[in-house]
Amino acid sequence: MELLQNPLFVLYLSVAVYYVIIPVGFVTNWWLSVETMAPNGTILVTGGAGYVGSHTVVELLNNNYSVIALDNLVNCYAEKNQKPESLKRVEQITKKQITFYNIDIRNKDALDKVFKTHKIDAVIHFAALKAVGESVQVPLMYYQNNIAGSSTLFEVMQNNGVKKVVFSSSATVYGLPQHLPITETHPTGQNCTNPYGKTKFFVEEILKDVCTSDAEWKVILLRYFNPVGAHTSGLIGEDPSGTPNNLMPYISQVAIGRREKVFVFGNDYSTKDGTGVRDYIHITDLAIGHLKALEKMNESGFKGWKAYNLGTGQGYSVLDLINAFERASGQKINYEIVKRREGDIASSFADPSLAKKELNWTATRGVDEMCRDTWNWQKQNPNGFQK
Prior knowledge:
41% of the residues lie in helices and 16% in strands. By secondary structure, the chain is α/β, with parallel strands linked by helices. Helix 6 (139-159) packs parallel to helix 7. The termini are far apart. Residues 21-34 have low confidence and may be disordered.
């Protein structure tokens, strides 16, 4: 306090602020940037406002990462000239700020500007169209968005010296399973049953080629099985635009009264009850898998690319999931059996042991928690993010 009463000290302090601290601040933006407060680095998250993206952003922020989120809003809700509602709620959950850009990853100039504005340490790449049935109907849209967009993103990363990426891949790259459970050594790209799966396979191949061409690249391919559930707060969850293409949100919309019944596509598969069997994984477990992937890439010995399955290793049929949701919600779920849907397969479930061994990751939430958290989200948000 005595120093502050000394006129000479106050004069020197004023000169330092005016001629040193303020100019340095303007050059570096250090007083405005949340990135300087994140000891684990800054992660660019494409598709950051989507279902998997928003839940992963929660985990990143809660684990001392800074986040730059990109999204073109094709599958999320946002009021005009505002952040997507999902990211507003992520900020509410974490009490931390997100830098957001409304950008399509096919826009090379806009992407390049983001990379030149921020010091980005790694990228988690979610941005993609993702409906199996839709991809069969409009394959060119999927190839243009998923493959061309990814290629543009990787080119901009290369040009800006950012060579770490976690890619949101899919179990669909395995095509028709040759054995169950599916391991990472299972062939990929053979008998892929839909264009969506093919786009994921092609992007994986692009990244493998990039790693071959440049040893500085570090790539982890996360092959998801079936993400379901919601954040335990009920503030964020799956909110598809239009008619849901995935089973769980369709079931939950029937439970809340938005839809009359669930359509079960086929009951003549070679499964225990004739309906399709899938490996469902809680969205929070899936999100944590991305943090484990970032940690793996930062190990001194990691180089090139590596693929990991993210699943529980447990298969549930469509009717299993309907029954579990009835237990969790206390609601009767009406359903109707209809013909098989083109592009679907009978059974798919993971062997997740490699992720457990090398990423120190395992799914900890079961189907009852998946249904409970989905119902909690749906009850609080009967119309999704729209008010």
